[in-house]
Amino acid sequence: MQRAVVVGGGVAGLAAARDLADAGCDVLLLEATDRAGGKLRRGEVAGVTVDVGAEAMIHRRPEGVDLARELGLPIVHPTGATSRVWTRGALRRLPRTLMGAPLDLEELEETGILGEEGMVRARHQLLPQPDDDASVGELVATRFGDEVVDRLVEPLLGGVYAGQARHISATAAVPQLVDLIARPEFVLPPAPADAAPVFAGVDGGMWRLAEALEADLHGRPGVEVRHGATVTAIRRTNGGFAVGTSDGEETAELLVVATPAPPAARLLSDVAPAAADELLQVCYASVALVTLAFRADDGGVREALDVGASGFLVPPVDGRQVKASTFSFAKWAWVRAAGEEQGLLVLRTSLGRFGEQATLQVPDDQLVQASLADLAAATGLTATPVDAVVQRWGGGLPQYWVGHLDRVARVRAAVARVPGLAVCGAAYDGVGVPATIGSAHRAVAELLGARSS
Ligand SMILES: Cc1cc2nc3c(=O)[nH]c(=O)nc-3n(C[C@H](O)[C@H](O)[C@H](O)COP(=O)(O)OP(=O)(O)OC[C@H]3O[C@@H](n4cnc5c(N)ncnc54)[C@H](O)[C@@H]3O)c2cc1C
Fold first, then answer.
1. What's the CATH architecture for 95-180?
2. CA dihedral 243, 245, 250, 252 (to 10 degrees)
3. What fold does the segment set 284-398 form as a domain?
4. What residues does the Amine oxidase domain cover (predicted)?
5. Cα dist from 310 to 59, 74, 80, 170, whole Å
6. How far is the CA of 40 from the centre of ligand 1 (A)?
7. Residue 119 phi, psi dihedral angles, 5° rounding
8. Burial letters for 406-431: b for 16+ Cβ neighbours within 10 Å, e otherwise?
């Protein structure tokens, strides 16, 4: 039986460990912190258990929902409540877009998101020249103008990457946009009547996916998940790898490095230096989530918050502190039900974009106050929350800048030259949970494929 070590117990590492165990390997998963799950994490606000990391997954990509179903978790979908854009002094309806690129200019005009000049430019569409790899911002600005990028693309892309539209690669982040943006008609094919919902979640929270994965691993012979085990160095040996940890050394024939790019770069510097050099170039954005619980019957709370929206996005040009707020009680039936038992409405704000680390380097209560000030200005909410929880995600989101796909190809080529080694996680094939799980499946398939060939 082959012995495999997986470094990092986020959803990628957990999924890779499961695939390796399914293939009959002995598996040791080494996780630096005292819990597995990485950015899938539960927290408690006023006694209500909620996600304080990822809260949803794209349904179209099957890896997330498939894995959740295999683990017996109930899949749910967001309610029909839609998000607003808080810009130019009002909460405005979000028109139909492809990651901020408008699909209907009449509808866009009705929302009032753009000023008059911005609207004139959006109508004066110019077709971008084909480019091997342009940024999302560049492509959309060429076609629809800068204001569409500033007030629509930035907040939508910021919600996923906490990044800047004029840096993020369209090919890596929104490949569908690359196909459509240079066509005379900017339209999406109509969705079939029985189209599945775009997003899914797990009833009770996405954190359950990580906990169920770990529980599944614990139940298997020959599999160990070790917490508090930071991997400090990796070197090659005759039969595979020596893996140095905070409290000793492990050996492995197969090794999967499933950490974010900065630690992966450090760990691979000896065994795959070319991959390490590339991984060092991947930048990360830090973000913080502030989860707030309000008493539903406090004066004005329902009137301000319970208005049928699932929250709002904030364009950076508007100069606010929060970049988005998710009214979790309105977006997820399970959050509403869990809060209602205690007469609470639970929501969260998110702060921090790439390059704005300084705004997060303040005490927790300042992040709470900043969130309350923006919520008050956006919705008129004046109530004091009964509880607030701040979860920081320093270096939380990799930035898929122009050139990212080529960089990932070079990383994979360098890693493939080392027999028995593979990498996976959010730095490679997409930052979303399903893509991250997909990268784990791919890493293990490549390892096992190489072993049998
Ligand atoms: C605030 C936030 C909200 C998000 N919301 C969503 C969402 O709603 N939907 C969605 O699809 N995606 C979302 N994402 C993205 C998604 O959650 C992540 O990209 C994904 O969970 C990353 O999984 P991972 O396993 O690659 O990495 P991580 O979750 O970062 O896990 C890596 C693990 O490696 C461990 N580690 C690091 N170094 C070492 C070492 N030397 N030795 C041992 N262990 C080590 C870490 O402790 C960590 O547990 C969100 C991300 C953030 C930050």
1. Orthogonal Bundle (1.10)
2. -30
3. Polyamine Oxidase; Chain A, domain 2 (3.90.660)
4. 11-448
5. 18, 22, 8, 27
6. 7
7. -70, -40
8. ebbebbbebbeebebbbbbbbbbbbb
Here the tokens at position 70 are 């295999």
Q: What Rg value do the Cα atoms of the chain yield, rounded?
A: 23
Asked whether the beta carbons of 152 and 143 are under 8 A apart, the reply is no
Domain with CATH 1.10.3110.10 in the chain: 95-180
Pocket test for ligand 1, best of 41, 208, 433 (most atoms within 8 A of CB): 433
Q: What is the DSSP string of 3-60?
A: EEEEE--BHHHHHHHHHHHHTT-EEEEE-SSSSSBTT--EEEETTEEEESS---EESS
Alpha carbon distance 269, 271 (integer Å): 6
Site to probe by mutation for ligand 1, drawn from 33, 42, 259 as the one with most ligand atoms within 8 Å of Cβ, is 259
pLDDT per residue as tens digits for the range 29-46 = 999 999 999 999 999 999
Maximum pairwise Cα distance, the chain:
70
Residue 250: how many other CB atoms lie within 10 Å: 18
pLDDT at 214 exceeding the cut of 90: yes
Q: What is the DSSP string of 113-158?
A: -S-HHHHHHHHS--PPPP-SS-BHHHHHHHHH-HHHIIIIIHHHHH
Residues of the chain with CATH 3.90.660.20: 284-398
Using one digit for the tens of pLDDT, what is the confidence trace for 233-242?
Answer: 999 999 899 9
Q: Evaluate: CB of 51 within 6 angstroms of ligand 1.
A: no
Indicate the CATH number for domain 3-37+208-280+402-452: 3.50.50.60
Q: If DSSP codes are grouped into helix, strand and coil, which group holds residue 163?
A: coil
